[in-house]
Amino acid sequence: MSASVRCLYQTVRKLANNPSGVIRNLSRTSPTWDSSQESQVEEQTRRNEEHGQLTELVRDFLNPADFYNALRNIGINFFCGVPDSLLKDFCAFMAQNEVDENHVITANEGNAIGLAAGYHLATGKTSLVYLQNSGLGNTVNPLVSLAAHEVYSIPMLLLIGWRGEPGKRDEPQHLLQGHVTPGLLDTLGIKYATLPDYIEGATKTLQSAKKHMDEFNSPFALLVRRQTFLPFKSRIPTPVLSLTREDAVKIIVDSLGEYDIVVSTTGMLSRELFEHRVAREQGHERDFLTVGSMGHASSIALGIALQKPTRQIFCLDGDGSVIMHMGAMAIIGQTNSENFKHIILNNMVHDSVGGQATAAHGDNFSFLEIAKGNGYKQGKVATTEVEITEGVRWLKSIKGPAVLEVKIRQGSRKGLGRPTRTPLQNKADFMNFLSYS
Ligand SMILES: Cc1ncc(C[n+]2csc(CCOP(=O)(O)OP(=O)(O)O)c2C)c(N)n1
């Protein structure tokens, strides 16, 4: 622990024990902190101290450990879902403290509803399904045709990170989703509440949720606002590799031709691609940034590849995204899209939302075997700068569909920006670029 972190931690401990109760619910465990979270909590701690008697101005945080214990107290012992940045501290706590048998990170959010249903059928018990509200769409079918009271009536608690909450600053792809989230739950007939950011409130809300789930045998949802949880960090060990995703993106992009088309996946990758074009003083017209719609970049790329047979299409994908909608690979493999080139940047984790393991973390997992089994014509792995450069050259020279798996380490640069052009500007520039024959 660095000196500044130790100092903060001591401040936090002191304040947590402060009889004036100026700040509440700070950690009873010993989480590690990253500097941005650290400085935000430090700033908040300072403000809380300044509030003096105005305790109504105090900002609380929910300790992931306390919330986990409160869940166990209402009988929840099984946890599954897809990670979200607003839930990353809770996810990190789970990854570090829960055994694998009781905690499964699923490929997509619909799978998690299925898993929770199977768990209920086998045990009669309720589980927790966590997700970002972007993944609500993936849950709709199993919620309405499996878990609903009108069908198999299966209780489960949904913990939903509320990106794009009205009144909060967020990216374009989260705005509509954030706005429609409560209405969507209403339409689905799912009762919900906002998760309080202090343990007494959270415990009460969990008790009401339990009462509802017991009485109606149906799902109940908790909406989680940003910065509800106290920071908790745990790092999933992955192989020591030299290149980051940003390094790899730069090498790939610099190896492409002037007319080559790029479709990039959700998360940090598209942000790094955008910044690299800025640094190179290039326009952004060659890139379609799949800022939302996680897992669909390869299908978008296929749609373009089939219509533009004289152009080369490079889909820059992530392991979590490919796994989320892996069925797309089966369809791609069964086409004759010779110009479809899939580059999977595999860091074995959901790096963009906190670094939780994907199935690619498993010892017996292989993207090359999967691609081959789905009918891709060829595949290769690259881990170094030279291998990536040669790999892209090779992809350009062969007939697809083909795949290049690029093995990278987790992590991203601090202060990474966000695209400054809007999705509509991106679309217009890109369509214009596609129109060159
Ligand atoms: C349907 C849906 N579920 C969850 C998310 C939240 N999310 C954004 S990026 C991301 C991780 C992507 O992981 P991966 O493809 O492996 O790329 P990496 O971040 O590791 O580069 C997640 C889970 C989302 N945007 N959409």
From TrEMBL:
Residues 26-39 have a biased composition (Polar residues). Residues 67-177 form the Thiamine pyrophosphate enzyme N-terminal TPP-binding domain. Keywords: Decarboxylase, Lyase, Thiamine pyrophosphate. It catalyses: (2R)-hydroxyhexadecanoyl-CoA = pentadecanal + formyl-CoA. One of its GO terms (molecular function) is thiamine pyrophosphate binding. Residues 26-51 are annotated as: Disordered. Signal peptide: none annotated. Pfam families: TPP_enzyme_C (PF02775), TPP_enzyme_N (PF02776). PROSITE patterns: TPP_ENZYMES (PS00187). The lineage of its organism: Eukaryota, Metazoa, Ecdysozoa, Arthropoda, Hexapoda. GO terms for biological process: organic phosphonate biosynthetic process. CDD domains: TPP_PpyrDC, TPP_PYR_POX_like. This is 2-hydroxyacyl-CoA lyase 2.
